[in-house]
Amino acid sequence: MNHLDEQSINALRVLSADAIEKAKSGHPGLPLGCAPMAYELFAHQMKHNPASPDWFNRDRFILSAGHGSMLLYSLLYLFGYGKEGKPELTLSDLQNFRQLHSKCAGHPEYGHIAGIEATTGPLGAGMGMAVGMAIAEKHLAAEFNKEGFPVVDHYTFAIGGDGCMMEGISSEAFSLAGTLKLSKLIILYDSNRISIEGTTDLAFTENVQLRMQAFGFQTLEVEDGNDIDAIGKAIEAAKADRNRPSFITIHTQIGYGCPAKQGKASAHGEPLGAENVAAMKEFLHWENQEPFAVPEEVYAHYRELSMQHKAEEDAWKRLLEEYGKKYPAEAGRLQEFLDRDNQAKLDAIPDFWKKGEKPEATRSISGQVIQTIKDAIPTLIGGSADLAPSNKTHMDGVTDFSAEHPEGRNLHFGVREMAMSAIANGMLLHGGCTTYCATFFVFSDYTKPMARLASIMGIPQIFVFTHDSIGVGEDGPTHEPVEQLAMFRAMPNFHAYRPCDATEVQAAWYSALTSPRTPTAIILTRQNLTPMEGSSKEALRGGYILEDCEGLPQLILIASGSEVELAHHAAQVLQKEGIKVRVVSMPCMDLFEEQEEAYQEKVLPREVKKRVAIEALSPLGLDRYTGIDGATIGMTSFGASAPYKELFPYFGFTAEHIVEVAKGIL
């Protein structure tokens, strides 16, 4: 390592330590220990252009150990990351680390700064998303590359530590990555044998290398985390393996360079302290003790590296231009894949809004919608956590994605719900893919952390959740979701759609596929539901009047999914008794809340205070529509094991009970 490389690495350490010290908050241990591997990666091993951070054929990088965010911010600042040659980060941004409205949040947040490929922080999540990006690269390469024209040809790198390796999601994701032989995936493991509570010997003594070999990874090892030549050789060896993903264990010292802290758990998640920062700078032979001071020669070196990387994008653009001349149709399709304009494609499907003609389970109707859209939306790719026959998510006549057939669009995630969700997020973040993933609604508990990340990132991920209530029946309370719908409704920037028939299922898919930045859960029944005469495209507004009376109603019945039919039957009984009733279908409360106030008032007039909401799930949250003068009919316990036709009346989900409750409040 020459002096300039050493100074450039230490600049990352100094800026990170100074920013954390100024904020009196943060995690200095990782930036100090991982600075050499991050520098080597960005300076010499990764294909990227800081002046054009979104160019498609760049290598992707995810800091899975997101608590070390100052390392990433320091890298992006020194490399001058920004669009159209205008750096997005200034020194004052680093100095404002972890403060309100700062670009430099406590953990990396996608969309806040150019160069951040994914929001990370929950340990292991970045590993799952990295696997997703590698799947997307392999799929699109198989779809578009021609001999001599590797227009899709890039790597996905991720850095994570012991915590990422302990979290189960990483094992789920790596197991699938090895099976799929994702040779463009390279994991850098910051092995410092320290976690928050102390040495990893307390709870983590396994041989990680052997585990990764068992998953099907090439495993490499670097004994000295400060040896960038050895790190570089390991990355080059990883790139040379065309059949396996690679896992590089790099032995580091947490808090390296701070004599009082290095190698100790106290270096992980607290500022070093002013005296220790000063001692660190002396140890690193950093000449200027002033906070945030970086020599001009270091700035100049990073500028030179950035200019060198620009040539990589220029070369790809020339390749793409030649590709367009030789394969104009394919070049056009590639651009179409990257544009993600699904609305026009959906509107061109002549029978998309076909009305249901017979009682069917909404999971089956959803499966029919998938068959309808699979050709119109060639970017559609997804699958289930080993439940496709039950979730009805398999695209008929479409190849399965595998190591041998990466052109396939049916993904088999195996029984790995959390990794499945993270992988789908990574594919969507990569670009060129319209993704969906699926499981039983009760197991959405396993997907929740990654659904939450999709919401935070503002990416329109699609989750298909079937077997949506006590309608699951004989499998009993372990498989009957009760509280899950309330959980998803509580999440900001998330649409939870529970349709009652074919029209509403179509609306759910249409909304999900055209959503610009909001994830959608499509929540579907196992049992057959009768088509509702009044269902319409108004379901795109989240809630609408399904059936009405003349004039102002005395009572409003509000329901979603399988309970809409019950509300319909109850309304018929009440209307025969002279009670003026309106039935409101509320397939997506979240979307209804986004409508203008005048529309909400039209559907649910304030002056009509007698309201009953019915859902065979937790009633939590329904009181926002029923108020103190209304009532809710929902599940206040877990379900039971019995045929669903016995469970619904047992728990009070009948038209007769709705009528009884309604009369009780009138």
Structure report:
By secondary structure, the chain is α/β, with parallel strands linked by helices. Helix content is 42%, strand content 13%. Strands 10-9-11-12-14-13 form a six-stranded parallel beta sheet, with helices on both faces. It has a five-stranded parallel beta sheet with strand order 1-2-3-7-6, with helices on both faces. A five-stranded mixed beta sheet has the order 16-18-17-19-20. Helix 19 (502-514) links the parallel strand 13 (495-497) and strand 14. The longest helix has 31 residues, at 296-326. It is elongated. It starts with a helix and ends with a helix. The model has no long low-confidence stretch (mean pLDDT 97).
What's a concise summary of this model?
The chain has 666 residues and is of the alpha/beta class.
Helix content: 40-55%
Residues in β-strands, percent = 5-15%
Number of strands: 20
Mean pLDDT: 97
Structural class: alpha/beta
Poorly predicted residue ranges: none
Number of helical runs? 25
The strand order across the widest sheet is 10-9-11-12-14-13
Assembly type of the chains comes to single chain
Largest sheet: 6 strands, parallel
**How far apart are the termini?**
82 Å
What is the global morphology?
elongated
- Rg (C-alpha, Å): 27 Å
